């Protein structure tokens, strides 16, 4: 009886940790995880509900005027819940499925993801991830980032109004 109670408490603790990792992420990173989850969970071949499992690499660069470039590599893990589950608080992770490795990069303005340049989302089952794919991800995200020599508000020319 005590072993059953301990096992139940362990399962409850483990399932609550599934959302804890996501909830501990800063809002800027959660938005990128949400993009990846939408993409993965909408894939026709996916049968189970996936949740954020953990970060691998995070980068958040402020480029000025409340604009940031964000890069986040993380893992998603299958749960015992079926695809389409709306309340995932009771979903427990499965240990018989490979992790999905995702990389997202995007630009934010005042904390909101900008539509241009289009956010980049790449997710693949971890065993299939190659070094070339990792390099391609970084190159794609680097090409989306603004260089330090790009146009800015300081380079804009305004009209001089009389009396100014």
UniProtKB/TrEMBL annotation:
InterPro entries the record matches: Chemerin (IPR029562), Cystatin_sf (IPR046350)
Cellular compartments annotated: Secreted
Signal sequence region: 1-18
Residue ranges of the TM segments: none
UniProt-listed SUPFAM superfamilies: Cystatin/monellin
Principal subcellular localization: secreted
GO terms of biological process kind: cell differentiation; chemotaxis; inflammatory response; regulation of lipid catabolic process
A cellular component annotation (GO) from this entry: extracellular region
Keyword Disulfide bond: yes
GO molecular function, one term: signaling receptor binding
UniProtKB keywords: Chemotaxis, Differentiation, Disulfide bond, Inflammatory response, Secreted, Signal
Top-level taxon of origin: Eukaryota
Protein name (Swiss-Prot/TrEMBL): Retinoic acid receptor responder protein 2
